[in-house]
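Appendix B, Record 12. Input sequence as logged:
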Amino acid sequence: MVKARIEKIKICFRVDTGTVVGTGHLMEALAIFRNLKDKFTVNAAFITVKNDYITEKLRRAGIKKIYPVARGIPAEDVNELEDADRTIEIFKAKRFDCLVVDLPNRSGNYYKKLNKNIGPVCTILDDGLHRKIHSALVFNFSITQNAHFYRGLNNKFKYFVGPKYMPLNEGILEFKPVRIKRKVKRIFVSTPAFLIAKHGTTVKIIKSLEKIDGEFIVDVLISGLIKLRDQMKIEDIINSSVKHKYILRKNIAQKEVFEIMEGADLAITASGNALYELAYFGIPTVMIAPRLEFLKIAKCFEKGVFNTNLGLVDLIDENKLKDNLAGLIDNYELRFKNSSALRGLVDGKGTNRICGHILSLV
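Logged structural output:
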């Protein structure tokens, strides 16, 4: 049955993905786009740094209008003021109804300039900063946020905080949370490209698993942004491993990621956005913090829902990984407690909540 189209929405997304800027920002923007497209006729465009990874993901999602905010430089090196000027220029020239910004590391002046020069701005954040943001709508889904801070701020800007506003791909709702079993059989491993390149994190994880007794199926997920030399190091260690069965998966569709998660008994990941997907499934998780700002997130997941926090990546060795993994594998009661708490944190409906508020603007 064809869904009735009752509105037309002309919306623009400002988002980046790079070796340090995680792929999660792009996935969040695409989740919002798909939710709106399921309800209305959506004329959407993306302003972004152009690279093969972003272009492939957007084309696969049916996005044809891609405007480069900068050419030939990585997302991490984009100048903030030039970014704002270029975004305003494109927004005005193409006459969009609304702008959705999902970027890390932008100052208050960046949002103030956007808000002053164009129409309604919706900002998606996932950090622990408590600050005033000049946007009609501000969503910060970080577990580190505190709603009390925003009460009494300028009523012109509306703030919605906490994991209930995590913009997950709503395809996740087709999958069921896991059932915690006495024996761990399948482990999910996912670390971003820059952790693999700088710290060899995935190789360390595999070496530590090889020191643990038992037989596991280990799904190793790597980003499409990984460099070939780093991928080859992972392939070499997998090929030389003898205890467990490793399945290397690169740049797969989100639905396939959810299928793997649904079958996992335990996960090892950086303390980024994957934590919220794993929380939906209730998968006991071992966390590695890439930088100090991620350590705060890891500590909140550790204190609030009993995830295992290994701390900063540069302080982690194979023995620390092995001891913590073995301890969690052997502790059924902790894994059960961890899973139950996680499932109460994220319900998978955050994208729909966000889109409802966006529609109130346009």
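The domain at 172-343 is CATH 3.40.50.2000 (Rossmann fold).
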